[in-house]
TrEMBL record:
Keywords: Membrane, Transmembrane, Transmembrane helix. This is Uncharacterized protein. The chain crosses the membrane at residues 28-49, 61-82.
Amino acid sequence: MRIKTRELELSKALDEVFLRLSLIDLRIFQLVISIPIIGFVAAIISGLSNADVDVPSKASAAIAIACVSTVYAGVTVLPVFFEGPLYFTMMALLDAGFVGAWSSLIGVWDNDGTGTCTAFESRYFGDQPRRAYFKTDCKLVKAMFAFMIINLCVRSHPIRLALNLRVPEELHLPRPPWYRSVCASLSLTVP
């Protein structure tokens, strides 16, 4: 549904335009933050595979969530201009799901992301002779962990924006004929 800004007073029209633009900016920033995570996890998986070490399932989960959230952020950029309250409600629910996914990934990677590199190397590579990429993998995990925290913070803001965009959309939905009489009988103000 497209709202004609001529029907809104100037302050509400500007609010809606800036809410939509800030939502688009956040989506683009989500893309920029999610893409490096895919690269970090791919490099970590490569390093673990080179050492003939089993790749932990949390690495597969991280790359899967990063890929899906990157595609989601890219797909939801343009419909922000044209969609209505149902779209923004669904977007808020999906964003809440991504916040849960990213926060669980942060919890799973916490020991590896905040621990020392020596602990990381002994955990994944054990008694193998030291190689140069062991330390690189540790630094990649720390960088990936930092990007995950940034991604979690960035993912939480569109939920509020999407819910705020529902309000002007709902005010312009067509009401059924009985709506005014029900509101009047309940002593409610008709929007």
